[in-house]
From TrEMBL:
It comes from Ciceribacter lividus. Keywords: Hydrolase. GO terms for molecular function: hydrolase activity, acting on carbon-nitrogen (but not peptide) bonds. Gene3D superfamilies: Metal-dependent hydrolases, Urease, subunit C, domain 1. The keyword Hydrolase applies. InterPro entries: Amidohydro-rel, Metal-dep_hydrolase_composite, Metal_Hydrolase, MTA/SAH_deaminase. Pfam families: Amidohydro_1 (PF01979). This is Hydroxyatrazine ethylaminohydrolase. Residues 60-432 form the Amidohydrolase-related domain.
Amino acid sequence: MSGHLLKNCAAVIVDDGTGPVVHRQVDLLTEGPAIKAIGKDLGARTMPAGTEVKDATGWFVYPGLVNTHHHFFQCFVRNHADLDWTALSVIEWLDRIYPIFSRLTEDCFYHSSVTAMAELIKHGCTTAFDHQYNFPRHAGKRLVDRQFEAADLFGMRFHAGRGGNTLPKSEGSTIPDEMLETTDEFIADCARLIDVYHDASSFSMRQVVVSPCQPVNSYRETFVESVALARDKGVFLHTHVGEGESPVMEARHGLRTVDYLEEMGFAGPDTFYAHCWELTHDELARMAASGTGVSHCPEPVYLVGAEVTDLPAMAALGVRVGLGCDGAASNDNSNLMHCLHSAYMLQCLAASSRKHPVPPPAEFLAYGTTGGASLLGRKDIGRLAPGMAADLFAIDTRRMDYVGTRHDPLGLIPRVGVGSVTDMTMINGRIVWQNGEFAGLDEGKLFADAEAALASVTI
């Protein structure tokens, strides 16, 4: 099996399972999909035949980032003046944007996935979870299949969240009829995708998560059946929680969202919720006790959060936390590295009003790596150590951007921020991006094809 030897790395973030430690002036050797060794002066005696040697002088090497919440299909509505949140109420915005989503074609879903994955990889993300809840009737049922196709194109590690909505607008949801499914339709397609794609083995590149969109837009039976299917198939569960909907849920069902979901078993170490910025201390404590995780999406907080998510309280209670970009309807980029910086800075902004101190910058790097791996139930990704998946990215710090910052590689991304793309991104032992190019792909053609698909939809 061939591999890569990164020689003379300025810093490698190594974690043997006890926490990250910066190793300076070391080599990193991969073999096949895994890391074989990290140490000084690795050479001919340790290298498998066919190993490619790369000069990594000046490089900071990080574990690949793990994105735990996104909506790839929303990439086609980015930076659109007519959809500016600041000019619309939430209801006005939903009424305007969902009809656009309902017009997307199968090709749109494919090319928007290509678009999001490309940006993620350029900025160090090696594993992506996408919450694909939009299934317009005319687009058919093979939309997640096309996402796996896009992931294969790049060689990206992909967890597909098969979402869906079942409650009609006439009964209180915000979803157009064109985007609705029955519970039976939703569950049947989740089961099909699990049977076809889900791979629970080490270094798996494809997994499926049962992910009904959100409790306010689906019948109770949809969530009950989701729990039954996921537990029967041994896969994870995901949904939106704590985005301001709890008062609606309480008025409708007599329970806030966390109570509603816990009552039916949609909670536990195989479950993670997105957002959670409006949750009470008691709700967070119960989530910590059950092992339910949180995908914190910091950048949408700028637009749609009534308050900054209380990560220090979550940390104090022991809630598992990962990071997500969220969809381009509430974050106009797919740059998880930028989210690390945003997450840290938002917590600093809110620190004076909080009971608990802001976690150190290195903890935010952990949210984007080991934290994300934990949410997805992965023990083979999220950190750099022998035997772990060779998922990593490298930044050449021999630039003016990094003068004065190089003493603390752990804090660099959360505290300083990195504005440029990586110099290299590796997934499962394969270099998928380096020197400004995707391996074996023509970015110009990918761009042109995505733009053509976008042009086919009237916004």
